[in-house]
Structure of Diaminopimelate epimerase:
Amino acid sequence: MRFVKGHGTQNDFVILPDHEGDLDPSPSLVAALCDRRAGIGADGVLRVVRTKAAGEPALGDAEWFMDYRNADGGVAEMCGNGVRVFARYLVDAGLAAPGEWDIATRAGLKRVTLGASGDVSVDMGPPEVLGDGSAVVAGRAYDGLRVSMGNPHLACLVTDRPVTALDLTGAPRFDREVFPDGVNVELYQALGERHVGMRVYERGSGETRSCGTGAVATAVAAASLSAAEDGPLMGEWTVDVLGGRLTVTLDERTSHLRGPAVLVAEGEIRPGWPGARA
Ligand SMILES: N[C@@H](CCC[C@H](N)C(=O)O)C(=O)O
């Protein structure tokens, strides 16, 4: 089994080329690959499969499907950093040309824009604002906004300490009736005009050093708070995460995410590796 390792602002992935859909990415195989001690180590797996071979209904008209899995082996609808790394992989492998084209995801077609090297940008679609919510982190409650980016988010404002001082060793608590499928929890603070710092505890992966869908949800939450005071605050937002910097652009129609997407290594999983039989 071939693999490539990549990351977007240190949100890292094992990329599995599986053009004709021959692999069975069972939850235990995915979890074994993502294991940082006994496996390769990653926040998730990106399986690269031709859309027509993916066996998923109604993925739309794109040549490639991003089959995204969280580190615990669970399926998620969308991954904003993942789709940018996926696009970089396709260009690097000669499977797509630099330019602008769609990638199929479980959350619909996502249009990526990239050159032969450098940042990758993706049209993330219109964020869906679902209303207020709250999460408890290390015994303290934080209010936030529920936002769907195809996957569920709760972006909470932190004002009592820098987000870097939050204790995220344990999972945030949230209302299971509001989020029956779980939720990605973002904690953010204002750092300047249209500039926020964010940490994230991801559904299925724990704390990660970045989350693209979470960065967009956070910009939406911060913009909606600012809008209450200053009127609609569309435009470009800077989201600093533990692994670097992402740029989110909000307009009346959609949202865009831009940032680095880096391929690190490639190799072969040894046939005798116990995880491959998982
Ligand atoms: N890190 C990703 C989001 C991955 C999926 C998420 N953990 C979920 O379960 O919804 C991103 O960059 O968006």
Summary: The longest helix spans residues 212-230. The helical segments are 27-34, 80-92, 212-230.
